[in-house]
Request: fold
Amino acid sequence: MVKAPLIIVLFCLSLSMNSAAQTIALTPTLKEIDIVRQAQFFINTESNETVLNGHSSSSASNAAHQNEYRFLDEYSLRHILQNAAWEPITTPSINFFFNDKPIWLKLELSNPGQNTTQWVAEIEWPFLDQLSFYLASEGGALQELNRYRYHNYPNVSFQLAGHTSATLYVRIYSQGNIQLPFSLYQSDYYDKKSVSFQALLIACISIITAMALYNLFIGIWIRDTAYVSYFLFQTCAIIYELVITGLGPTYLWTNASENQSTFWLLSASIGVSTGVIFI
Reply:
């Protein structure tokens, strides 16, 4: 009879421990970390975010002008972070679906080693209209992080000195579906991984492009509209792949970085329409 209350108390303690923020130790043996329940979130329902110039400094494709735009002035930024009511993430993935309010993520980091390490934070979702990263050091200094490398997914780089800790903040705003597959990588490992991934994507899209041009040539040569319809379908499939993989906004339509969710829905709709015409 005495064991039942004890079990209930232990269960409540375990829930409270799981809901607390977890500090991630960035040790040299770690190469990749998938971020889910280590993070906390905050949805800002108040209109206290002062937008400057209307652009995000770390958007998925606005790398060329990453030092020209600041999304929040420093006063607004510190006021938001100091008064935020952070909540734990209890779901298996970070997904806010359709939310028209700015969303903040908070991640506690530490470097237990002696050497300075360099890490890359990446969100594998190119359909975010606005995205910014901030790093707060132990001394209270707040730094807006710049894009690490020209990649199809938004990414930033930061260094963490030995025996120090820091807090990583991420601000997200988008009019489309907000999914946040968030990961941390050691910079050397990330370089190798991203080059291989991009090479595979470009090879696949090149093959589909060659097939589309072949069908267009055959359709014109024998004057068969079926081949031309298939060419249109393949062309729309290529555009959809460029959108969904982030290659399009990164290398082609770089000036439309804040309309990624619109491009995604538009390309999918046109692709389905051309597929129906082909059938």
Q: What stands out?
A: The first strand starts at residue 23 and ends at 25. DSSP finds six helices and 13 strands in the chain. Residues 94 and 136 are 22 Å apart (CA to CA).
